[in-house]
Amino acid sequence: MKTEYRFNFLFTFAPKLSKAIFMQFITRVCLLAIMILANSWLGLAKSEGDKDDQGHGGKVNTEEEVEAYIDHHLDDSHYFNLFSDGETGEHFGIPLPVIIYDFDNGLHFFSSSKFHHGEDLVEIDGQHYKLYHSKIYKTDAEGTITYDEEGFVENEKPLDFSITKNLIGMILASVLLLWMFTSLAKSYKKGQIPTGFGRALEPLVIYVRDDIAKPNIGPKYKKYMSFLLTVFFFIWILNLLGMTPLGFNVTGNIAVTFALALVTFIIVQFSGNKDYWKHIFWMPGVPIPMKIVLMPIEILGMFTKPFALMIRLFANMTAGHVVIMSLLGLIVIMQNWIAGPAFFGFTIMISVIELLVAFLQAYIFTLLSALYIGMAVEEHDDHGDDVPVV
């Protein structure tokens, strides 16, 4: 009860905070956005381009080069690139471990620095491997890449289990989650009121419990709180990391959003009670001909719900990155004192909105997951006998 009182007190009297504190907060957010955008702008203007993926050099100053730079920003990478020297074309960053399994050549471990940003081939036991468009392909000694009639690469691709930049982002988010909740749990051992960072974390935990889990799942909500808290903070942290100059775009990777949606799908199906399955395969209170018609629709709905979760998170976060990078690209392309400040101002505005979207997408994914779980565990009243066919 004391915890709920503190939470209600916070949101009841928060609007009464002084305007000076509010303006300080807005100023700091804007300064943070400016620093992030300035770093991204400098990287866009001075980058040597996508030598590892696109095969060209020079500064990014044309529409095609900006488009290639945006594609590179959205893609995953085997190299954690921090910045590039636009004059020498030298890249500075951290090479990541490459782990590939070739059915003809076995399992291999090596550093991504051997690819030299796609400029060199890696030879292992007579087999050659090339990094091309952030993917590793088998090739010949000349590094030939062949295409089919539709423009897709025909080269054989080994199984890639590498530690990529997106995986580093997920590990970082997981470490932050572990630290946050461990600190919150330890603070409760000292008293009922959390200390330190736990004071900021507790209202969010209570918000997920009282406004997401309880209303949508009902009395059985405690069983699913660990999942809902994990997915909420995991997505939120990843979205915020995507707003930093580190170049993470984890939630803009459809494989990641697919995995998150798949976990929700599995939990929903294994949590479904007899009423849930009855409403899918033989809906009560409906004429038998309608049951036959509705059954395939309900079965299809089992898969469209997680599909919508996957696409919504992926599309919204990808669109935000594309808009911000496109506005920065317009500054570089137009290169005048009128368009520069104007587009830079638009970019700051969109970046501040993206900070809200980062939270909103985590909230929506968690809310819909709780809603689907609630539909699976809900106990339905008897509908009586089937309606006779007239």
List keywords for this structure.
single chain, 390 residues, mainly alpha, 2 domains, 3-stranded antiparallel beta sheet, 10 helices, disordered N terminus
Structure explained in plain terms:
The chain folds into two domains: 90-162, no CATH class; 166-377, no CATH class. It contains ten helices and eight strands. Helix 3 packs across helix 9 (288-334). It is mainly alpha-helical and 390 residues long.
Query: Which secondary-structure class do the elements indicate?
Result: mainly alpha
Relative strand content: 5-15%
Shape: globular
SSE arrangement, N to C:
HHHEEEEEEEEHHHHHHH
Strand order of the largest sheet: 4-3-8
Distance between the termini: 56 Å
Q: The biggest beta sheet, please? A: 3 strands, antiparallel
User: How many beta-strand segments?
Assistant: 8
Number of domains: 2
Radius of gyration over all CA atoms, rounded:
26 Å
- What fraction, in percent, of the residue positions are helical? 55-70%
Summarize model confidence as the mean pLDDT. 78
Alpha plus pi helix count: 10
Low-confidence runs (pLDDT<50, min 5 residues)?
1-22, 31-58, 384-390
